[in-house]
Design goal:
The complex is a heterotrimer of chains A (about 290), B (about 300) and C (about 375). By secondary structure, chain A is mostly helical. Chain A is built from 13 helices and 2 strands. Chain B is mostly helical and about 300 residues long. Chains in contact: A-B, A-C, B-C.
Amino acid sequence: MRRAYFKNNWVAALVVTPQLLIIFIFFYWPTSQALYWAFTLEQPWGGGNEWVGFENFRYLLSDDRYWHSVWVSVVYAVCTTALAMGMALILALFADRQLRGYKGVRIGLIWPYAVAAPAIGLAFRFIFNPSAGVASYLNYAFPDFWNPVMNGDHALTMVIIAGAWKQVSYSFIFFLAGLQSIPRSLTEASAMDGARVMRRMWDIQLPLITPTVFFLVIINLTDSFTDSFGIVSTMTSGGPARATNLMVYKIYEDGFRGLDYSGAAAQSIILMLLVVALTFFQFKYVERRVHYS
Amino acid sequence: MIERTPILNIVTHTILFTGLAILVVPIYLVIVAASQTLPDVMAIPAKLLPGDQLIVNLKAAWVEAEFATKFTNTLILATGVVVGKLVLAALTAFGIVFFDHRLRMPIFWMVFITLMLPLEVRIVPTYAVAANALSPFQSILDVTGISWLINATTGVEVALNWNLLNSYTGLIMPLVATATGTFLYRQFFLTIPDELVEAAKMDGAGPLRFLREILIPLSVTNMAALATIMFVVGWNQYLWPLLIITDPAYGVAAVELSRLVPNMNTTGGDIPNWHWAMAGTLIVMLPPVAVVILMQRWFVRGLINTDK
Amino acid sequence: MAEISIRDVRKSYGKDEVVHGVDLAIYDGEFVVIIGPSGCGKSTLLRMIAGLEAISSGEIAIGGKVVNDLEPRERGCAMVFQNYALYPHMSVAGNIGYALKVARMKRAERDAKVAEVARSVGLDEFLDRKPGQLSGGQRQRVAMARAIIREPEVFLFDEPLSNLDAKLRVQMRHEIRRIHNRIGATSVFVTHDQHEGMTLADRMVIMNKGTIEQIGTPEEVYDHPASVYVAGFIGSPSMNFLAGTVEAGVAAIRLGNDGRIDIAAERAKALDGKLVQIGLRPENLSMVAPGAGAITGHFEFAEELGSGRLYHFQFEDLTLTVLSADKHSFQPGQEVGLTADPVHVHIFDGATGARLDTLEPMRRRASLEVAQ
């Protein structure tokens, strides 16, 4: 721990005030507002909000549409995380062999991180468009083989693929960094011990990047729950028939289209709890990771 | 290391090439569509080779979506987020790391908690705040009775109002209100040896001078890393601008892009102008991708050290 | 039989050549220490023997078989790394037995072998621990056990003791030598520490800037350093060097303005008029009355070593050190005569730094034969 400090606490107050002010206005206040709204109901004829306790939550949790949204979000989160991380891990393991062309491969696997969600959404919406592009071949051969505009499962699949595409680079960067932080002498020692490339991946590299795997599972799940709006909004608008109505999108729809602030706030609180739970889980694990090494 | 693994090398190259292809092919198809006429785009079977309409379509998309204005706005947004983060995060981290006061850990945790909840999950109330950024203070005054007191004593009705909808401030501020960056700086500041602080004190440098002349110059690489990440994040904003900007003069590129293809449920079967939309997609994705490729080293370092 | 033969081996990274044509023959069962300052190419040479680095040109053969293109696992070498390179996620038993597991030895057989080797290095109580729970010395033992269990023909050590504290280092040094004597595998040990080199080696290889300066038994290297470089590197406190000119007429080397070191007449005759560097070990210099010695030094200060003292003298613009068991109390600036036994005067070429002659006929030839 640091022992040399500056003593002038006025300066300290001065330098931290701007950020504290901003997070108060744009973070703590809205978050507390969400709580307030979640437990109150706006009076139809004005006159402030009425305290309704858990009524909003009770209503929400008895709504099949909400549970459907939760289910779709979980499917989306699990599938994008699994797809993106699986692909990223395999690519990172092999890229880390640093054969010829390594630098080109690396940049080629990193840049998609920078593509905006709406751009990804539009691109994949076009590519999976049933009446043009690649999918049209399949539909030509087998009519109605692929139609995300009408078929909810197809739409969800399409959104998952776009979401996974968006996440691959992020996981790849972390996996590669994790692999490269393994001391080279460990790889060399196992090579001297007779282990060949694949064996080393399995026995040495994979076990040693498990902390990165856990970290990425949490980050990717959190991201899939919270950061999916751009893709859904540009690809399906939650449709068809709410098949891709992810939680974040539903909050937006209910809050800004339906003007149901209390309902949206209650949904926000539930999503917040979910995210906080995931983060908490991660911290528990990170603690152990420190002990581990 | 000496390794004779000819087959595995081929496998390695194949896997990596497949991965690259999965990431590149969608963008290739975008480029193809952006370089064709609409009938070509919709032709069955599809034409998978680029046409000659790329420039035409890029121009059309540029005009159609008013990207001249939107790019300026997006640039202002991204720059605002970058500068805001760089400055605020540095100041806060400085205050947390180099001063020993009772509020140090509470402030640390207050800032830290903001990492947990992204803007998307508190979007509705944040929007309400943006409609009147002074509403928190108004509420506090109302609840504590100060408004009433002022009204009773001076006859002035207390009505604080600062509308941030349709403004750059409104676009930028909520995006700055998280702890990304503060942690990057904090971790770096914690590696600054005590001796450096002591030496600065011996030389008679005050805290602000120490910050300006020692810490900031030492943080340049961290700042470059943070700036790269924040530029990409700022440029790619979608939900927040979609909500608070209704005046086209303040519109940003990503939102405008989505307007190039009308919503499925409302088109009534019209074929969207895919060729323009794909050209627009290319235009919008280009700047952040270029930044990431050019600033690859900083970008990777920033991403890993901020833990997002 | 696992003799190692290295012929004209070079290593370059891009245009940068770091090992410039090394020739070295290591006999079966020999303990060879490669020693030199950091960046001299000693670790690179070791890693080329291990197969961890490809060689740029030349040839390496182990047990008569050229291994240039063989993978590390095919060379029959075991290595102890500087930072031990223990697998942090495996237990001590897992670390020691990993090579056998890779070689698909049966579980029961493997466990028995691990237990046996662990006992031989005193680790039997720690088999279930993770490396993170071990002390530095214990980790070092695990690294040793991991190498031993494979019964390799060649042991490679890459500065394995440099992370240990001084006391433990000496203890582990003895242990390594004991293990070598017991197993009898060919051992190549890289270090920058001359004490380790002198005490462990059958033969030492002194490297500098990517080339070998001298190969020889510790005694040879100490008594007959082949160059100024070796003479300065080996020996502590280090050798004094003085520039001078040989004068056959007086059978001496003239140093500076009024210094003079006598040498045998025939040696002086052979080198008449030559500019030379002479090397004098601190323990070969003795202190006499002012004017009586070969040169006169001005006393500066003395360092107490316990078993003796190291006296520092100023001679013209040089500092000379003298190691003596005698306890003198000189005043700073006091003039003291310094003299050297002609037998112990090392003479090197003033321009190239190469040794110009041997002090005495190679009466230590026998030691080489022993090594062979």
